[in-house]
Amino acid sequence: MCLFCCRIFERRMGSRKFSSYLLGTCTIATILEICTVMLLSQFDIDYHNGGYLPPGLYGLIFPLYVNYFLDIPRIAVSSFIGVPLTGKTVTYLLGLQVASTSQATIISSLCGLVAGIIYRKNIFKVQRWLVVPRFIAKSFDKLFGWLLNSSEPKYKQMGATLELQRQEQTDILEQQYYYNRTQEFRQQRGQGYSERLVDDGVNADGILGYFLRQRQRPTENLEPSQENIQILVDMGFEHARAVEALRSSSNDLETATSILLRQ
């Protein structure tokens, strides 16, 4: 589950760079674990089950938490007794559960975190030395690429976390619902407005592209017009809410309708 939550990094880095990252962090984590066991043995401290650390993917998982903490945005979802809960909280709790199994797992987990910091900061130029050779990457790509490759996502802008991806899917469904409402409105009021509203066709790509351009379009501070207010009222929205949405969107009808649908 922890690896699944960190799958975004392979898409960001690319397969070769990501495999080099795993190779480097696992190597560094293994060296740190050996040094830690040797150091504890000098002081006759046995936190590691008679000289052995527990086997597992600690050197693979916990270095990813460094990038996960620094690169994945923190989006507040709710709070519990004053402590904010975000979309990343569950991932941190999973890692904490894995790390807190025993004293030996704590040592392995800490070594993994330190390995992630060393590789990210490129201390001792580790990113230059611990890298997967290009010919090996090409060989594996030819042997297994056909089995693991998949088609590109339909929408290029993809959120880093599952929560962001769900929000993007919700926005697309919301925009499609907006389009259906305007189609119904056109049948009642005649053509003109909806054709001006959707200029890229009736497919989802056109709808999404239109709204992305509308968000980037500069607006001026304009008072709501009676025509736009009446259009929103005819679409089923309350008069007061329509005026407030138009005022907050500088009399932009499309943005105001999106605001009302979100509410």
UniProtKB/TrEMBL annotation:
Bilayer-spanning residue ranges: 21-40, 52-70, 77-95, 101-119
PANTHER family per UniProt: RHOMBOID-RELATED PROTEIN, UBIQUITIN-ASSOCIATED DOMAIN-CONTAINING PROTEIN 2
InterPro entries, per database record: Rhomboid-like_sf, UBA, UBA-like_sf
Signal peptide interval: none
Residue ranges of domain UBA in the record: 223-263
Topology term for the membrane: Multi-pass membrane protein
Subcellular location, record wording: Membrane
Main location: membrane
Gene3D superfamilies: DNA helicase RuvA subunit, C-terminal domain
Pfam families: UBA
Key words, A-Z: Membrane, Transmembrane, Transmembrane helix
SMART domains given in the database record: UBA
Stated name of the protein: UBA domain-containing protein
Species for this entry: Orchesella dallaii
